[in-house]
Amino acid sequence: MNPRPADSDLLAPLDLAFWNIESRAHPMHLGALGIFAANSPAAGRHAAELLAARAAGVPGLRMRIRDLWQPLDLRQGLDLRKGLDLRKASGFEPRRPLAFGGAAREAAPDFEPLDHVRLHAPVADFHAAAGALMQRPLERDRPPWEAHVLPGVDGTSFAVLFKFHHALADGLRALALAAAVLDPMDMPAPRPRPEEPARGLLSGLVPAVTKLPGLVRGALSDVGRALDIGASVARATLDVRSSAALVSQPTGTRRIAGVAVELDEIHTIRKSVGGTVNDVLIAVVAGALRRWLDERGDGSDGVSPRALIPVSRRRPRTAHPQGNRLSGYLMRLPVDDPDPLARLATVRTAMNHNKDAGPNRGAGAVALLADHVPPIGHRLGMPVVGRAARLLFDILVTSVPLPSLGMTLGGCPLTEVYPLAPLARGQALAVAVSTFRGRVHYGLVADAEAVPDLDLLAKSLTVEVAELNAACVS
Questions:
Q1: Interior/surface letters 189-200, b for 16+ CB within 10 angstroms, e for the rest
Q2: DSSP structure class, residue 362
Q3: pLDDT of residue 240
Q4: Which of 12, 403, 411, 426 lies 20 to 30 angstroms, CA to CA, from 295?
Q5: Local structure of 446: helix, strand or coil
Q6: How far is CA 434 from CA 134, 274, 338, 402, in A?
Q7: Taking a C-beta distance cutoff of 8 angstroms, is the pair 31, 420 a contact?
Q8: Would you call 404 helix, strand, or coil by DSSP?
Q9: In what residue span(s) does the O-acyltransferase WSD1-like N-terminal domain sit (predicted)?
């Protein structure tokens, strides 16, 4: 039995799920490809040296994930969330969950930044080089992150590919960790975490009697929510109208592509037809998929793939908790509709419906069910759940927020940044979107064997934005 060190942090249920879904043939890391304007031929080498030196001083980058096999420790308190999440309704906060079969983040005693920051030979195509690196799984016995510096062959630019395991960081947390090794910039300080009052040995084992009615109401509410999500998941598997192009036998290979469009063009479309910027960005994906399927000969008639739209439940300026706090919306992309404005209207209606229901209901909130599974259940069941992801959704479309401030590394400005989402088992494509410095960056991740023509889809995104603009002014 391996005891849990005092300075470790038990993984939240969703983090544990991501950790156990992964296999070496199917990595579960997210990433970002940042492109910098070089101020000298040696800018790439200097950037790698800075990243390694700064990583040593970032506590979050020293954290490895260690599997735990220990029974309940009374000093940790009793976690009543096994099956029922009671603490939110009552204010009752158990100290630690049952760790048996779980995992924890802990400081690696032999952390060596040079094992994580690597300088590569000059490359001609940043995206092609990054795709080959994205298919390599992270080492699970040391802090699960990497930074790859890719100098450009022309000496005028270099790229940095950051990779973070999803169990170590979600999108916002990964952004904070990456920003910590870039040049310092003036950003708002994270809100301090409220201090918990001191408790005795038995404190937290049993809730106060006066809180029992709230506990019961909370239990019933959570059971109802879990049943609602389960029923919605079952309904989402009915009447599936997807495309074979979005299905893949897991090969572990990766190909990435990126495209940037002007944010002003997106705002022009939004102002013309209403809705939100996110509605337009999702509609652009739907139109690009239609164009891509038709051009590759697969056909888009009758195709309306299910898109999972992750929703962060973390406040952007809050550093704690470190774990993933995600829900999501599930919607059908109107790929089969030939009218670009009608596609946008369908997306708006679907997103408004999802927002009215909230991120805690519906099939897209399936991630919340992780809270109701004990650690041993994650260890034994998540590999099976990972194989079933294809039954729930066909494509991931996620938005990753970035600061509007300029970022630099070694004095070299960051000019482009392409977010890269994990690719679920059995799926061929994932799309991530970020807005940075007046441009929208689409990052595409695909199974390299299933989607050899990913650049064609990237070009289709640009064409779709132009088509929507033309439809708005006609």
A1: eeeeeeeeeeee
A2: S
A3: 59
A4: 426
A5: strand
A6: 19, 20, 26, 7
A7: yes
A8: coil
A9: 11-71, 95-280
What's the CA gap between 367 and 99, in Å, rounded?
20
In 182-276, which ranges are continuous DSSP H helix? 212-236, 263-273
CA distance 461 to 148: 27
State pTM to two decimals: 0.80
User: Each residue of 349-369: pLDDT tens digit?
Assistant: 999 988 887 756 554 444 444
Q: Max CA-CA distance within the chain?
A: 71
Distance CA 305, CA 390 (A): 11
User: Which residue do the tokens 């106060």 mark?
Assistant: 208
**Cα–Cα distance, 158 to 282 (Å, whole number):** 30
Structure tokens at 71: 């029974």
CA distance 354 to 221: 20
Which amino acid is residue 382, in one-letter code? M
Is 435 in a helix, a strand, or coil? strand
Higher pLDDT, 201 or 422: 422
**β-bridge mates for residue 446, sequence order:** 255, 429
- Cβ atoms 236, 229 nearer than 8 A: no
User: For residue 270, what pLDDT band results from cuts at 50, 70 and 90?
Assistant: very high
- Whole-number CA gyration radius for the chain: 23
- Any bridge partners for residue 412, and if so which? 409
- 191: tokens are 């809100």
**The pLDDT of residue 203:** 39
- 301, 319 Cβ separation under 8 angstroms: no
Distance linking the first and last C-alpha atoms of the chain: 70
CB of 17 within 8 A of CB of 382? yes
The closest of 284, 394, 280 to 332, measured between CA atoms, is: 394
Give the strand pairing for 9-10 and 326-332: unpaired
Q: What's the CA gap between 56 and 115, in Å, rounded?
A: 11
Burial class of residue 272 (count of CB atoms within 10 Å of its CB; 0-12, 13-18, 19+)? middle
DSSP 44: H
The answer to whether the CB of 146 falls within 8 A of the CB of 120 is no
User: 444: closest CA among 462, 463, 419?
Assistant: 419
* Distance in angstroms (rounded) separating the CA atoms of residues 44 and 29: 24
